[in-house]
Amino acid sequence: MMDPIKKTGIRAVACHAALLALCLSASAQEGSPLGNFATLEGCEQAPCGEFHHGTACCDNGNAGGYYGEIQFLRLKAHASEGDTYSDDGVPRARNGYRINLGYQTSEGLGARFRYFDYDGAQEFPDGRGGLKADYFDFEVTDQFRLSKFDGILSAGYRHANLEELYQDDNYADFKGDGLTLGAMLQRDMGCNLSLYGWMQHSILVGDDPAAGSEGLVASWTELQLGGQYNNCVAGYNTFIRGGAEAQQHAGIVDDDSEDTGLFGWFLSCGVTF
Asked: Which pLDDT tens digit goes with each residue over 127-152?
């Protein structure tokens, strides 16, 4: 069987190669920045309010500006070897959240900060168990258009923590830093409605004091698929998103082949200033 660390490396290279291919095939064009109000043919023109830092609720092309988004998550923890972190074998969904704050210029370039927090630790008769995870990212972003898709590519730095509890013991307590690469795509489907997808992949190097391990190489992959609705509120472009999210964490513990993951739902809202 292939060594788990080699498998992690192969997956990481494949994910980054796919995102690089997307980047090379995309041509930067004027398109809808994050959360812009859609004005498709046959749709009612969006109302134009007062301009706020270059953004209004009308078809303003690619004015750029600040934006913010908060995501509410409901996720269940899973493991590749079947441990669902509960005494009865039934995974428990727990709440989490993710915050995105950024700025995008009229040329499409920008910068973004992201924070994610999930506390899945639970009390069971045989002790506390579950997954706890958090990270923050600093990224450079660039807007692009690929055929009928509008999107944002991102690359930057991630600091992450992932703790795995089992019967009150810290089975894993990984802390690492590394590079992260992502892509977001939107596809207009109707008046102010669009399909939405996001992928983020990170390669992390860190230590696990709980397991006495140093120099671990891990990967953290996140996927979201869903829909988006744009609207105009008080002169600002706003959006609501919802759908499914899946995560995979590989290579966290060096003496175990087990991968962990999260799966569930997200609902988010955001605004462009």
From this structure: 567 789 999 999 999 999 888 899 99
Counted residue by residue, the chain has a size of 273
Looking at the DSSP assignment, which residues form a beta bridge with residue 68? 101, 271
What is the pTM (predicted TM-score) of this model? 0.79
Q: Can you read off the two tokens belonging to residue 46? A: 């969006």
Question: Which token pair is 65?
Answer: 């500006």
Q: Where are the beta strands (DSSP E) in 192-259?
A: 193-208, 213-233, 236-250
Cβ(92)–Cβ(83) under 8 Å? no
Residue 43 gets which letter from DSSP? Answer: S
| CA proximity to 14, closest of 197, 245, 211, 250 | 250
pLDDT tens profile 117-129: 999 877 665 656 7
Q: Are 105 and 64 in contact (CB under 8 A)?
A: yes
Tokens 């980047």 belong to which residue?
23
Contact between 174 and 158 under an 8 Å Cβ cutoff? The reply is no
Which of 72, 96, 171 has its CA nearest to residue 130? 171
The DSSP bridge pattern shows strands 260-272 and 169-190 to be unpaired
Instruction: Show the CA angle centred on residue 13, arms to residues 100 and 264, nearest 5°.
Output: 45
Contact 245, 224 (CB under 8 A): yes
For 1, counting Cβ atoms within 10 Å of its Cβ (0-12 exposed, 13-18 middle, 19+ buried), the class is exposed
